[in-house]
Amino acid sequence: MAIISRKPRSASLRFQTFLDSSDITTSTPERSLVKGLRKRGGRNAYGRITMRHHGGGARQKYRIIDFRRSERDIDGVVTTIEYDPNRNVRIGLVQYKNGAKRYILLPTDVTVGTVVCAGVNVEPKVGNCLPLQGIPVGFFVHNIEMKPGEGGKLVRSAGLAAQILATTGEFVTLRMPSGEVRMLPAQCWATVGTLGNADFKNITWGKAGRSRHRGIRPSVRGMAMNPVDHPHGGGEGRSKSGAHPVDPWGNGCKGTRTRKRIDSRILSRRTK
Questions:
Q1: Does residue 54 contact residue 217 with C-beta atoms inside 8 Å?
Q2: Interval 218-242: pLDDT, tens
Q3: Backbone phi, then psi, for 268, in 5-degree steps?
C-alpha cells in the first residue's frame, strides 16, 4: 500500500502523508454488523480519568469483528474490503454459504473473491483459521487466542504477525512481533498470514488537528511543569537532576518493569 504526499497548498499539507485507499471497495458498512460507539474520554464509570490524553475525536460507529471465527467448517467469500475507523488494519466482509455475514481482519494477499474457512482440519493457508497445533512450524499467524475459545487477543494491528517456532505436546512456541518468545496452549486458534496495511506506521500526521480527529489530546512533558505538578518539574532550564524517569505519581516508567508476576510461559523477554 502506497504512501501519498499531497501538493502543499497550505502549510499543514506540506509534510502530511496519507495512505492510498484504492483497495477499499465500499464506504458503506454492513448495517447488521454496526452499532453505536459512545465516547468515554478516557474516564471510568465514576467519571475519573483512567487513561490520559483521550477525548474528542470524530464520531464513529463500531464494526463488530468476528475474532472467534464463529462460522466453522463453512466456506466464505470475501465480498468487500472496508475501512474501520476503530483500528489501523483493513477489514473484510465475509459472506458464508449458510447466509451469515461476518467481518474479519484482513491479511495481506486476501482480496475480494478469496475463499476463507475456519475449522480444525482446514488447510493452513492465508486467511484460514485453525488451532495452533494444526499450523506447521515456521508459518506466520495473527489474531491469536490466549485461552481456547475466548477469541483472538494477540497480534491484531496493521502489518503484524507472530511466527510459530515449535510445537511440543500441549504448547506451541511463538515469536511475537515485539521479539518476545512465549508458549501458548496448542488448542488456541489463530489465523494464518500477516495482517495488511503495514505502511500505517509510516504516516506523517503533519498537524495537531489530525491527532485530535483521532481522539488523541495533547501531552505535556513533565519537565515543562512546576514541581507541584510533576516529579520532573522545576529547575532552571532543562533538568532531570539525575533521577530515573517517573510518571506524575512517582511510579517508574520508560523501562521500569511493571509485570506483577513471573509468567513461566514467557521463554524470552522482548527486552534483554
A1: yes
A2: 999 999 999 999 999 988 888 877 8
A3: -150, 125
